[in-house]
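ARCHIVE CARD
SHELF: 3
SLOT: left
DATA:
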Amino acid sequence: MRHSNHGRFRQQVQFLRRQFLQDGNLPFTDILTEKVVAQALSELGKDWLDRIFSPLVTLWVFLGQVLRGDHSCRAAVARLIAHRLARGQRPCSAETGAYCQARKRLPESFFSDAASLVGRGLDGKAEQRWLWKGRRVYMFDGTTVTMPDTPENQEAYPQVYNQKPGLGFPIARLGAITSLWCGAIVNLGFCRYAGKGQGEVSLLRRLWDVLLPGDVLLADSLISNFTNIFLLQSRGIELVSRLNKAHRRADFRRGKRLGNEDHIIRWFKPTSIRSLDWKTYKALPEYITIRETRIRVVQPGFRTKALVVVTTLLDPQQTSTEDLATLYRARWNNELDLRSIKSTMQMSELRCKTPEMVRKEIWAHVLAYNLIRTVMAQAAAAHDLLPRSISFKGTLQTLEAFQPLLELRADWGGAHRLGLYQDLLRAIATHRVADRPDRFEPRLKSDS
């Protein structure tokens, strides 16, 4: 970076950090650091032109665009004009062309690296009391998003096969690995909605390098097959999921009995696995050792629901049936997290007209989402709460209301800013959500 730009770069980083409370002596203020931003900018090279829409200004405007209810580029540029006037600077043009070109110039890796680094940075700062039995638990699930019906988007992410041309929209499948304790997205992948190698299992295998030995993966029944469990065990990763009844049935009369409807059993290799070639199939072991336990969900006024949980956590002394039941019921948080980013942040229907810009738009949403999760963790630490007990929507609304003050007092002294931060965190901490693992909330079906 040129010396003439270095001072301006630091000022812009500091301003961006203050918008998300990454300043002062608050907890978790080392998530969005200058080092993280510089690492995300590394592919841009050491020089860039000294223009209004520098990479960091473009990022700040883009984050504001995905966080606000009005996602239009015109509203985003209007906010930048107001910001420049408030700071005594000359206004930029109200036309959106320069801003759109600036977003286009930035590589996708700039957004993806920043989002992933923030998510993993927050997850790595977990307090011990927020973990499950001292372990880090991650959830995986998939979802879909739609985008404008342009030829480029249709080619990259074709609409559903059974929709007539002109009646549907391009659709992409997303897969996300999310931290259970804080809700941060630590890795994300994209693919087409349909086709060979385009399913959730394939997405998970592209993303699970982020998991470390000793971690626990909490997933749905689609993941609990012979190959996935073996590959996860080979990496030292434990799995907790629901039994996939399409492939296996639980018979508690067999295996090593641990308790009532709780046993350890061998799963023998299927006679064939369509997704594997013959050489890879032969390299798999003849069997894997699995624990199956039946849990019951009792809800007043409703019929008792029984389901079989499959896990590689075999020791009943360390992990009881009640522990597994509580953990599996916590998987509902994954549905809430996806709802937060798709519905609350309005990511279900994207606006960009090319596949590259669509992916950048998604990563901008993920970065904004992870930064909001960071603010929630700060409020939880400051007020002795669990991060999951704080409302995501309440945090977003409060942070949006405080944004003008955060901008106005950006250059004030540290004591004044800290007082404002404390007021903001206190307001966020008042928006609590109850523990509601048995609440029935069916997914919204899109008309498209």
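SLOT: right
DATA:
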Amino acid sequence: MEASRAVARRVDDLVRRCSSGLRGAAFQAEVVRAIHALLPVDAVFLATADPGTLLFTGTFAEDPLVDVADQFVHNEFGHDDVNKFQSLATGARHVATLDTATRGDRHASARYRDIMAPLGLGDELRAAFVTPSGCWGYLCLHRADSPYGFSSADVRLIERLTASLGTGCRLSLAAQGTDEMAAVAPGVVVLHPDPTLAAITGEAERLLADIADYSSSSPRLPAAVYAAASSLQSIDHGTARPDASQTLRVRTKSGGWLLVHGTSLHGTADDQIAVIIEPAHPGSNAPLILSSLGLTGRESEIALRVLRGTSTKAIAAQLHLSAYTVKDHLKSIFDKTGVRSRRDLVAQIMTGV
């Protein structure tokens, strides 16, 4: 009984921390610390996601996952396998284990055979952080290879936390920042198909330096670069989801936004990939910004029309709503975004929130 009360207290504490607006590395560290306190796990992987594309925008991984991060990304986008993060984000169940998905035959998973088993890892528990405003991140928990995996109680525990963890990821993006890189020229990263670095421009190095999971002293590029490249490869190979995109948006440490886009380089010897990184104009990020502020899908639809200067009467006609309903939605939008008028809303979103 005392043990169950201790777990309940730790869950409540994590839920509170998810609503506190922790940014970047501080939020990741808090989540990883809490997970280790709640469950016996041997390695944790945590990622933030762009709810519009469901691609990784940043990652945190514990040993021994760090050195094989590229292989996990390639598996996610380049192979058929169980419990893909994007499938969890769009499916009815947002939490699942490897043992359940393979009915105990772990070798049925290429991810287990090629990556996890050589590392001495066994069952994994994966979760998508789905909220009413979209999926904002993913979690993968690993245990050492043994006949014993994650239990149904473990799954239920993480299920209790996914929406709160999604809120924490969302709030970490919504914090106020500045857009100091708006005048910086786009940068280009060229990757081999494997995907090792072939070349990088100085502009790309400067832009990447403002992404949380990048260090100039490390050979690894940010997860967003690999995600854009791998998503492009899956589209080219015909293995991607129908709504897949090779473009994603990334929040920077200085508070701005970057667009990361993958494109094929035709005519190169080994089908190299160019990943273009450029500062994003606030207008192009409006849907993501509005979602990060907690707006529902309908509220975001109305807010986007407000940003275009559409009148309340016209919004009502376009969305087949009454003017009173639109006004009620506007009141909720203003409350959630902390503004008092249409003009304030436009100023807040278009200056980069």
